[in-house]
Structure formats: structure tokens, C-alpha cells
Amino acid sequence: MSFSGQTYDSGVFFDELIDGEGNPRPHAAALMDYFRGLRPEDLFERQRAVDRTISDMGISFTVYSEGDNIDRAWPLDLIPRAMPGAEWDHIERGLVQRVRALNLFIDDLYNDRRVIADKIVPAEIIDSSRNYLAPCRGVSPKHRVWAHVTGTDLVRGGDGTVYVLEDNLRVPSGVSYMLENRTVIKRVFPSLFRNLSIRPVAEYPTRLSEMLNSIAPDHTAGRKPEVVVLTPGIFNSAYFEHSFLARTMGAELVEGGDLFVDDDDFVFMRTIEGPQRVDVIYRRIDDTFMDPEAFRADSMLGVPGLMRAWRAGHVAIANAPGSGVADDKVVYSYVPEIIRYYLDEDAILPNVPTWRCSDPDHLAHVLATLPELVVKPANESGGYGMLIGPRASKAEHEQFRALLKADPRNYIAQPTLDLSTAPTLCDDGVEPRHLDLRPFILQGSGVSVTAGGLTRVAMRKGSLVVNSSQGGGSKDTWIVESSK
Amino acid sequence: MMLARAAERVYWTGRYLERAENTARVVQQYSQLLLDLPDEVGVGWDELVRIFGASGAFTARSGESDEAAVFRFLVSDPDSPSSLATSIRMARENIRNTRDLLPQESWESVNELSHFARHNLAATTDSEDRFEVLSECIGRCLQIDGILVGTMSHGAPYHFLRLGQCLERADMTSRIVDVGAAYVRLDPDMVERFGSVLGTNVLKSVSGFQMYRQYCQPQVEGRRVVEFLVRDEQFPRAIACCLDRARRACRKLPKGQAPLASLEGVAASLAAGPDDELTAEDVPVIMDRIQKQLDEVHRAVAKTWFLPGGGEQ
């Protein structure tokens, strides 16, 4: 396989578009024909057209500590990542299963705690989790759903198996970039879409709006519930997305200062006509910043009394406070058992094999084989605080051994994954780069999954770090209907 | 229903877009004017700063008061509060903050304007492209205004946008008239020789030359120009016309009595004058009063509709 005369070889890694023989996979044949027909200068020209469109559309993300320059253009590679429809149907079933089980699990943890009584998950793991929030006990939100929006991270290993890497049940971001990536690629390559059947993604804001309406408190029956998006404000790294979702749903975008809770525990927003009742809050701020009365007294972002209003059932909050307890990476390692316990089914999507350092046998194995493993803290996100064994120095190995022994509950370890690759335009032409995939799952009265999701790419050669805050890029993700 | 915070940002979007356009217009016309006047008229670059009411800030910022320093201060300096670059940046920030309320195309257009400004404004200091660059900025501001007028529903956000725009425009016209009238007063000789050049330029800086010609006088006469720019009810940049449109916006908004009363006060000032005719001596006094009254209107608007404790956005 070659692009513009330059050899393309993904080596030992599974490539999403090219098979082991160097031929395009069937679902990527038309896509590869098109890109292989372009001269190198055409490829770079099209990439510039992509960049220009992104800049004109103002698609940006925010990076902290860059002084005035808070906006960065969103990085999008021009070559889409494609997956066959039949494979996606299987993954979608697995995601629906997983999210349904996790919501039953969270509801159980804050109420009857049967899962603990039945010895599926040990009590000390839950009670020591800093995402298990005491003020949520005894609450059962509508439909018994806590995590209304989930952004599950999927990766494909060397043998082609798709694994769940993380569940992201708190405030997952990226869905607006999934939508904008598609808009840009359609603008720049209209002809590509004409002859292919690619599942659309554009209905997400409608689905999100339906889901938020479906969780409105019962007292709103007979009128349209007032739905708002709560953002920490313009300096948050995902502000672009908060604004995008509010705009596309036709909901108000509010900050903490726009809301207040009255003496009867109802939530209002301050408008030009005076106070106005709020029924559903899609919150994009962390649990513990939501209400300075219940959690961090120093939070300037939240709304005093919000937890009172939520506990009284006067307002619905998505995702519900306390959902993050199932996001703990130690809890993650129990998800296959959790699925079996609540649904009496085997997990459709496998977990990445995980060693819990809280288990003395696991810890001994992790300490002995540390240079081959990836070690992750239980409650961080965005790739922070990790050790990638094979890339780390001896000193870093020693440092992590000390950390693991001092606080084993807060670490898990996994084998280093051979993340799959896809052809990506780099400085010297088209080369393989590692990627992952984040689909978005909505659960209210029903469950829906995006067709595909956000593909993130590690732009540096050999790198496995896909986070945009650390130099990652992205691709449009195509679920291609197989021809009959 | 509209958030108090959003109302404030949309209002400032209207103000900054208008300020950007006016700044480009005035600077462009002033550059042309200086080409027509000999040095002895005594009109210098620092007069331009006076139009913007920024003489104090200018002296504090720039040691020199030559053409290049004035251009930096009013056009390209991103840190100068009075520069075109700053107005464009603030307009973009406010649109960015209210993207859920404004048409998507207005965001794309303000981004394009902002890229254009970043790459081209610095060059206006000493370049032959000055006229074209400023024209392009004016054109792009008008394009954004056109998108907003042409595609926004006439609900609360639209009226706040218009209110901000009209107050800003009335303020700028009052400043232009004030400075223009100052020369008419200077010296009868000068007025004899250059009055029509000045009057023509004052009109052109608000794109009012043609409309003046069509609806008023064949001759450009200082007093008539002032009359036109202050009291005409049909020319959209005349103060009376701006105030009328601001009043209309307030009437469409909930609880607008206080700002409306305050606007009636400004309108009353326009009508003042013994024989109902403005004299060159009256002009600075009246313009000064109008500017102070416009500030009061702004305070009434903020008190009625914005979040308590909010500042300029």
C-alpha cells in the first residue's frame, strides 16, 4: 500500500483501513481509492482547506495557562476513520448493555446496596471512593438513571478486539467536535459522501434534548420543561461545546450566577423579565463545584442550595450528582461482574485486563512487571498522573513503586495496549498513527448511541497519547453501511 | 425570555460592532481630509484622538503625537482601549459568549473580520493600503450587521443589539459634530476657504454626504450640516434618528420605562435653542450635554436589565 508513491506500513499494529496484506479493508475501499488518487500537494491543499474551514467556523478548544491566547483551532485530520456497520451494531449493543447495568449499579449503591450485600463489589472500594457522595444517599432519580450522558472510551488491540478503556460517567466532553468534524469533512469532500452510505450523526442534539425532557420532574407534566445547560464559563476548556449544545438544543446557557434556589427549594434563573423557573439542568461542572452549601464552600461556580432542590425532586440534574462513583478505575475492573449481576448477561464488550493494586496478589504482580504495564490513578482523567511502563525511566519506575505501596487502593495497572492505527496526514506525508474512539450514550426513558463517535489521534509518531490538551488530533468517524 | 447576563453581552456586541465600524470610518475620512487641508489650517493628527474623547489616555500611552502614534493608538494597538483592534476583539468576545442567541453566520463572519484585522491593521500605520484595509473592515462590519438584521427574529436579543448600536452611534455622531463645529468657529477666513471641505468630510465620515445632498441643500454649509446630523429624523446616523430607534427598542422590551424616560430627556436637549436653530456657539455645550445624557441612558439600561454588579464586557 502506498500514498502518493510513499509506502504505508502499520507494522505489527492493527490498521483500521488497511489489512495485513496491505490492501484496503472492504469498508474502506472507496475511501482509500479517493485518497490514493491525490497527489501529495493535493493532500496538503485539502488539509489547508480543512484547517481554514475550522478557523472560519470558529471551532476551537481552550488550553489553560496560555495567557491571552485561550483559543486553539481544533485539530482535524482530513482522512476519515471508517468502521463497518455490522461491527458497529455489535459495539452499540455492548454499550447499551454496559450503560444500563452501570445505572442500575449506581442507583443500588445510593439505596439498598444489594451489590455489596451479595459480595459482588467490596464495601471498602465504594466507601473509600472520593466520588461516592454521602448527600446522594436515599435519592432515586427518574427512570433510576444517574449517568444520562456517557462517553465511553474504546480502543482496538493488536488482534482486532475492541475493548472498553474507560466509562466517563461524569461530564464527558467531545460530542460537539464529533458533530463539527462531520460538518467540515462534508464541506471539504462533498463528492465522497455521494457514493457511500455513511450513518448520519447530526441528530445528537435532538436526542439529547429528548433525553433531558424525559427526565423532567413530574410536576412539569402538561407544559414544556425549562431546560438549561450549566457551564463554568468562558475559561473552561470545553466552553465551546457547552455553547454549541445549548445553541443546537435551543436551551439557555447559564452560569452559576444566573441561577438561585428560593426558600421553597425551587431553582430559578435571572432574566430580563425577572426570575424564571428551571426544571432540568444539563450540568457541565464537576459534582463538588455544583453547590457550595453541600460540597466545596469555596466554589464560585455553583448554585447554593442546588442539592436541596435536587433531593426534593424539584429539579432534574444530568448527570446526577454522585454518578462518578462508577467512574473509579477500580470499580471499572468489576464491570463484567456488575453486568452479570444486574442483567444476567455476559458482557458483550470486554474490559482491558486490569490488576487492582488493592489486592495483595495483584500488587505483587504489578510491582514485579511494572516496566511492561500502564499504571493509572483511580480517579483522574485526561491522561494525567499515569505511568507508561515501557516509556518510563528506571527512576520513574521506582517512584511509582513507592506510590503503589503507599496508596494501593488508588491505582490499577493494565498491559500496554497495541492501539490500532489509521492513515493520517503528517508533515512528511501519510503515516500510521494510533487512535481511540469515544461514542456517546444517552439514557433517559430510553437509551441511544451515536453512530460512531469522536476518534482521537496521537499525532506524534509512536505516541499513544490522544488527548487534545496534550497534542492529540481528531478524525471524522464513519460507520459505513455494508453494500447488500 | 432572556438571561440578564446574555442581554448585557448582546447589548455590548451591538456597541462594539458599531464602535469598530465608526472608528474605521472616522479614521479613514480624517486621513483623506488632511490631504485636502494645508498645514496653516492648524488641523493635526492629535485632533483625531480628541474625537474619540481619548486625549488623556493617548498622552499617557504614546510619547509622540505624530501620524504613526495616532494610528497605532486608534487602529492597530491591541492594548489601546480606543483602537479598532480592541473593538473588533471585544465584539468577537461578546458574540462568542452569546453564540447560542446569535446566528451562526455572524460568528463565522466576526471570526473572519478578526483574522483580517490581526493580519492587516498593523500595516495601516504607514502603508498605501490604508484606505483599502479600513474599507474592508467597514465592509465586514456591515456584513455582520446585515446578517443580524436579515436573519435574527425580532425578539429581545435583537432589541438589545439595536439599543446598543443606536446609543453608540448617537454618541459617535455627537463627537464628530463637536469637533467639526470647532473649526467652523475658528476663524472666519478659514471658514470661507475650507468650510465646505470640512463640512464635506464631516458628512463623509458618517456616509452622509449623498443623503445630505438629496434631502437638504445643494451647498455644503456648516450650520446646515450640523442641523442635518443632529436633528434629521430620517438619516440613520443623525442623533435624532438614533434616539428614535433606541426608544422603539426600549418599548419592545419588558419594564423599559426608566430607560425610555431617560431617552426622552436626550431628545428634549436636541430640540433646545432660542429660535430653534443651532448656532456654532451652542454646539459644544449641547454635544457635551448629549454625551452625558447618553451615559445616563446606559446606566438606566444596565440598572433595569443587566445582572447587578456586571461591568463592561
What this model shows, in words?
The complex is a heterodimer of chains A (484) and B (313). With 484 residues, chain A is of the alpha+beta class. Chain A folds into three domains: 2-87 and 174-198 and 437-480, no CATH class; 88-148 and 202-343, 3-Layer(aba) Sandwich (Rossmann fold); 355-415, Dna Ligase, domain 1 (2-Layer Sandwich), CATH 3.30.1490. Helix content of chain A is 30%, strand content 22%. Chain A has 14 helices and 25 strands. Chain A has helices spanning 29-36, 40-57, 85-109, 114-117, 123-127, 175-188, 190-194, 204-214, 239-249, 306-311, 329-332, 335-343, 360-369, 394-406, and strands at 2-3, 6-7, 60-62, 71-73, 77-84, 149-151, 153-156, 162-166, 227-230, 252-254, 259-261, 267-271, 274-277, 280-283, 316-318, 355-356, 373-377, 387-388, 411-415, 421-426, 429-438, 440-443, 447-449, 454-458, 472-480. Chain A has a five-stranded mixed β-sheet. In chain B, helix 1 packs antiparallel against helix 7, helix 8 runs antiparallel to helix 9 and helix 12 packs antiparallel against helix 13 (257-271). Chain B is globular, with a radius of gyration of 19 Å. Chain B has helices at residues 4-36, 46-51, 55-61, 67-76, 84-97, 104-120, 130-151, 156-186, 188-205, 209-215, 222-231, 239-252, 257-271, 282-305.
What count of domains describes the coordinates of chain B? 2
CATH class of the largest domain in chain A: Alpha Beta
Global mean pLDDT of chain A: 92
Strand order of the largest sheet of chain A: 5-25-24-21-20
Which pair has the most extensive contact? A-B, 22 and 23 residues
**What structural class should be given to the helix and strand makeup of chain B?**
mainly alpha
Q: How many distinct domains of chain A?
A: 3
Which spans of chain B of ≥5 residues are poorly predicted at pLDDT below 50? Answer: none
- Rg of chain B, nearest Å: 19 Å
How is the main sheet of chain B built? none
* CATH architecture descriptor text of the largest domain in chain A: 3-Layer(aba) Sandwich
